[in-house]
Design a protein that fits this description.
It contains 11 helices and 16 strands. By secondary structure, it is α+β, with helices and mostly antiparallel strands. It has one domain: Double-stranded beta-helix (4-Layer Sandwich), CATH 3.60.130.
Length: 396
């Protein structure tokens, strides 16, 4: 056992050394790239991160464990884009347009950044070896038209991972807005409605949400640490923590190729290579219960899911979304949802977020079948080309 533990520490140390060799924007001494922490806030916690090899049915020590009282005011742990950042983004957008690059083809190679590249390296490090959550504020939505916003947003994301298809239409730029969807429909995903959703984790390493327009009322983002949730359940009911480490059936919400099963199985809590990872027990497991061939919940699963959902709610913090805010989350250590909202009557003012799904093959270790499935490749349907629509008007 000691040898195994030492090997896990060695593997984690090797991976961490690779990450720490990246330039650290907060430590730069170049006046052109020096960042005033009084302006940008201090989102970096990875410098003081402490992680121990994660073992099933033991308490997890991980920097992504945090609670309501650990965050404080959002501005104090956010990065605020400066005027210089806006100029750098504008120059990169101009380069993309000048070179005739399609919006869906924006990549790190054709979206040149300098100082902001260092910032995004730190954002990725924080998602990997810090809290697992970063807020960015003051993205220049008022300076850019919709296409420029999309290019700049995709360009920023490309410095953390590769974009993925988010739905059956192959959209790499998602639109989170009320399209009149019914959240209880087995084939309707919650982002197409204005309902309050169950806590969940998206099927990718990192999810990004950029606020273009806020709701008239409500719609606050809610986020919780999966590590904290696991540790609390383990302390309170270890028998149910064990149940949550076993497979649950999950619905593909109709987004499958012909001949594929409409469901798959996956634990809520997983352990691999000395790392803890998690996914949500949200609508995907409830909707799977309505599919033929899926066994009904056992009494233990019913009790475990009920405790899980109550614990997540107890651990969650509400975060307001203002136009120009971007929220990046590591889906394998954080859970998110949003509160029900009332929208504006005018179409142009309705709540509207742009979403990114990003894959990072060097990201947090997760089970092989999960990495090779939707979490590693997105909604990959045969014959569907990737696209980046600037808006959608029907459920997609």
């Amino acid at each position: 056992m000691r040898a195994t533990s030492d090997r896990l520490l060695e593997l984690q140390g090797s991976r961490r050394e690779k990450l720490l060799n990246l330039p650290d924007a907060s430590q730069s001494t170049d006046n052109k790239t020096m960042m005033d922490t009084a302006v940008v806030g201090d989102f970096r916690t990875f410098h003081k991160a402490r992680r121990a090899p994660a073992v099933p049915m033991q308490r997890v020590t991980d920097p992504a464990e945090w609670g309501r009282g650990d965050l404080g005011d959002v501005a104090s742990w956010s990065y605020r884009f400066t005027t210089r950042d806006h100029d750098e983004l504008a120059a990169a957008v101009a380069a993309v347009r000048r070179n005739g690059v399609a919006v869906e083809a924006v990549r790190r190679e054709n979206f040149p950044l300098t100082a902001l590249a260092e910032v995004m390296a730190d954002v990725r490090r924080e998602l990997l070896d810090g809290r697992g959550m970063v807020m960015m504020q003051n993205f220049p939505i008022d300076r850019f038209d919709r296409e420029a916003c999309a290019i700049a947003y995709l360009g920023l994301g490309s410095y953390m991972g590769t974009t993925m298809s988010q739905n059956a239409q192959g959209h790499i730029l998602g639109h989170v807005k009320d399209l009149g969807g019914d959240y209880t429909d087995p084939n309707t995903r919650g982002y197409m409605t204005r309902a309050e959703m169950l806590f969940h984790a998206d099927a990718c390493d990192y999810v990004g949400l950029l606020c273009l327009h806020g709701a008239k009322s409500g719609g606050e983002s809610r986020v919780a640490s999966s590590v904290t949730v696991y540790n609390r359940i383990l302390e309170r009911r270890p028998d149910l923590a064990k149940v949550l480490c076993e497979d649950f059936y999950r619905s593909h919400t109709g987004e499958v190729n012909p001949g594929e099963k409409p469901y798959f199985t996956q634990p809520i809590f997983s352990f691999i290579d000395g790392y803890f990872s998690a996914t949500g027990a949200g609508a995907a497991i409830d909707k799977a219960q309505k599919l033929p061939g899926v066994p009904r919940y056992t009494p233990a699963q019913v009790e475990a899911v009920e405790l899980y959902r109550q614990t997540v709610s107890d651990c969650a913090v509400d975060i307001g979304f203002e136009p120009g805010d971007i929220q990046f989350l590591n889906n394998f250590v954080t859970l998110h949802t949003r509160r029900e909202y009332e929208d504006w009557p005018e179409e142009a003012r309705k709540r509207h977020l742009l979403r990114l799904w990003l894959s990072d093959p060097d990201g947090r270790p997760i089970p092989k079948d999960q990495r090779e499935g939707r979490s590693g490749r997105g909604v990959a349907l045969k014959g569907v080309k990737l696209s980046a629509p600037l808006d959608v008007g029907v459920a997609a």
